[in-house]
Design brief:
Length: 162
């Protein structure tokens, strides 16, 4: 296993354990993160997102949480893996099984420089939100609304941190 594969394994092992501190330590200071719900720049925002999500899961729905990852591949500059999360969405209390393809770039010292998660947003919204997600989850304006809500939640969370 090369150094970047080790970084990814360390990150997802920590994620499975909801260890946001270890997860955050895997990112470079100026890293970026992108998925259908978040668009983040810098370790502060990315770390804040992972801390917020892990804290919410630990507080309410730990018994429903499970993460699996596989097909870890990385070279000196980029990487890819598949991961799946099983959890209870806190807003609706509905069970979700999300399948994600993740792509990465790395700094020369083995930290994550960019992280992009891709998943079927409509599939996710149907599970997480039920009928509303089924009816609206495919629509770009709905996805934009979700991004606005997650951005607001993250800003509120970051504002409450010392």
């Amino acid at each position: 296993m090369n150094a970047n594969e080790h970084t990814l394994t360390r990150f997802y092992t920590a994620f499975a354990a909801l260890d946001a501190d270890t997860m955050a330590s895997c990112y470079a200071a100026n890293a970026t993160f992108e998925d259908p719900a978040f668009s983040l720049k810098g370790r502060r925002e990315i770390s804040g997102m992972w801390h917020m999500l892990c804290a919410a899961t630990l507080a309410k729905n730990r018994e429903d949480w499970r993460l699996e990852f596989r097909d870890v591949r990385a070279d000196h500059s980029s990487g890819h893996l598949h991961w799946e999360a099983h959890y209870r969405f806190s807003v609706s209390n509905r069970l979700v099984h999300n399948r994600i393809e993740a792509d990465f770039t790395f700094t020369p010292d083995g930290l994550i420089a960019s992280h992009t998660d891709r998943f079927d947003f409509w599939r996710w919204s149907r599970q997480a939100l039920g009928l509303g997600g089924w009816v609206l989850g495919w629509a770009p304006f709905f996805q934009k609304q979700v991004r606005l809500q997650t951005h607001a939640a993250l800003n509120k969370y970051l504002g409450s941190q010392p």
